[in-house]
Design goal:
It is built from eight helices and seven strands. It is an alpha/beta fold and 246 residues long. The chain has a single domain, classed as 3-Layer(aba) Sandwich (Rossmann fold). Strands 3-2-1-4-5-7-6 form a seven-stranded mixed sheet, with helices on both faces. A hairpin with a 2-residue loop joins β6 and β7. The radius of gyration is 18 Å and the shape is globular. The N and C termini lie far apart (49 Å).
């Protein structure tokens, strides 16, 4: 893509982000109103804003003929990160509330017969039978009832199934020993910065995941932010294994 064209496209995305997420409508309508104007350039900009997605997909422990669900799957961009592994997946369901983004998923999945696209709510959608893996990619922070979404995801999983999450976050004021520490100003800055666009950074997300899935791996890192030189935003990758039958 020509640099001038990229800047023009980025400007359209940034303009929508500066306007922020609408407040005077329900969650599904807010998503559509916010993302529809920027959907055509969503993937190009988010590829530079959302780190760790390919790494999360790589770390998902998938058996042969796995059944997989992505909650809040947006444009289906994460399908590309599976590479040849996608051919060994029996089915992958992309669930999202935003029709404008799911239109892009439809185009991306047209030659991938194992992909099923569902306009649905992450807190209530349920497959016909338990699956091997559920994951959220920069979606958990955008779900108001995130605890319900996690509980629903856990119920979808077979015993031994995997839950994966990659997302922005802020650490608690007193993190556990050996964990990332974010200063008070940084915690306030990132929470307010992202909240303007309906992204709710919450230290309870990662703590809750680790409590729900005692068998887990957590990776904490930082990534640059487009057009903010020298600024690096914290994010995490989590992969947990469901134990028991609950």
């Amino acid at each position: 893509m020509h640099r001038l064209e990229q800047w023009r496209n980025d400007f359209g995305v940034l303009r929508q982000m500066l306007r922020g997420m609408p407040r005077d409508m329900d969650h599904a309508a807010r998503l559509q109103a916010f993302y529809a104007p920027q959907a055509a350039h969503y993937d190009d900009f988010r590829d530079r804003l959302l780190p760790g997605r390919a790494e999360l997909v790589r770390r998902l422990p998938l058996p042969e003929n796995a059944r997989v669900i992505e909650l809040g799957g947006g444009t289906g961009r994460n399908l590309d990160f599976f590479g040849p592994r996608l051919n060994r997946i029996e089915s992958i369901e992309i669930v999202d509330l935003c029709p404008a983004l799911l239109e892009l998923t439809q185009a991306r999945a047209q030659h991938r017969p194992q992909v099923r696209i569902i306009e649905g709510d992450a807190t209530s959608y349920r497959p016909q039978s338990p699956v091997d893996c559920v994951y959220f990619s920069y979606a958990l922070t955008m779900i108001p009832n995130w605890r319900d979404a996690l509980a629903n995801a856990c119920k979808m999983l077979k015993p031994g199934g995997a839950l994966g999450v990659v997302d922005f976050y802020v650490a608690p004021s007193q993190p556990a020993s050996g964990r990332a520490r974010h200063g008070a100003l940084e915690r306030v800055f990132w929470r307010r910065w992202f909240a303007h666009d309906g992204v709710r950074l919450n230290p309870e997300h990662l703590l809750t995941l680790e409590q729900m899935f005692p068998r887990h791996e957590t990776f904490e890192s930082r990534a640059p932010v487009p057009y903010l030189p020298g600024i690096r935003v914290p994010y995490y990758i989590f992969v947990g294994c469901k134990t028991g039958a609950g």
